[in-house]
Amino acid sequence: MKKNPKKYLFFIVIVLILTTSCTKVKTTYYSNNTISSVVTMKHNKKNGRARYYFTNGALQQETYFKDDKAHGLLRRWKTNGILQSEEHYTDGLKNGIATIWDEKGHKVSQLTYCNDTLDGLAKEWYETGSLRLEGNYRHGMFDGRWIWMSQEGKVVGEGNFIGGKGIVKSFYLNSKPSAITHYTNNEKDGQEIAWDESRKIKLERLWQMGKIIVPDSTGKQGLQPHSNAK
Questions:
Q1: CATH assignment of 23-91, among 2.170.130.30, 2.20.110.10, 3.40.50.2300, 3.40.50.150
Q2: What is the pLDDT of residues 151-181, one digit of tens each?
Q3: CA dihedral sign of residues 118, 120, 125, 131
C-alpha cells in the first residue's frame, strides 16, 4: 500500500508547528533596560541555550539546559570579555574537564570531574605558563603521584597517595628537604615536621583531620606546600 505523500507532508508540518509552538525565548532586563538574560524555554522549563549578561551588556555566562538542568557546555566571562571558566555538564552534574583562566587570559587550573566528583587529572599553572602542580584524583581523593613545582621549574613537593592517604615531602630550591606532612582523606593528619637548610628542625606539630591538635611554639597555622583543590 502506497503512502499518500501529501498526508505525510501535512503530518510533518503539524509536528513542526506543535514543537516550535512549545519553544519560547524568555528575555529579562535590568532596571536600566539592558538585557539581563535570554533563555530558551520549552514546556515551562529551561531547554536549550541560556545567556546571561553584565549590566554593561557584556556576555557573562552561556549555558545549555535540558529540563531545567545544565546539560552541555557552560562558559563564563569576565566583564572585560576574557573567558573565565569552561565546564561540561550532564543532567546537572559536572563531567569531563573544567578549566579556569585568570584576568589576563592565562590558564591557571584544569580539573577532571565524573558526576560532580573530582576524578582524573588535575593541573595548575603559574601566570608564566609553567606548571605549578600535577596529580590525579580518584573518587574525589588524592591518588597516585602528585608533584609541586617552583616557577623556576624545580620540584618543591612530591606526594604519593592511595585513596587520599599519603605523605607529602617538600623541598628547597636546592633540593634539600624542607618538610614532611602526612595526609588522610585529603586532610593533614598526623605529624608535620619542617627543617631549615642546615637540617635543623624549625617546626613540629601534630594534625588531626585538618586541625592542629598539638601546636608548634611558633604559633603558625601550618605549612602550605600546595593548594588543596576540591
A1: 2.20.110.10
A2: 999 999 999 999 999 999 999 999 999 999 9
A3: positive
Which grid coordinates are listed for 110?
584544569
End-to-end CA distance of the chain: 63
CATH 3.30.720.120 fits 119-217, yes or no: no
Length of the chain: 230
**Nearest alpha carbon to residue 34 among 9, 52, 49:** 52
Task: Enumerate the domain spans of the chain.
Answer: 23-91, 119-217
pTM of the model: 0.81
DSSP code at position 199: S
Q: Which residue do the cell numbers 584544569 mark?
A: 110
Residue 126 DSSP class: -
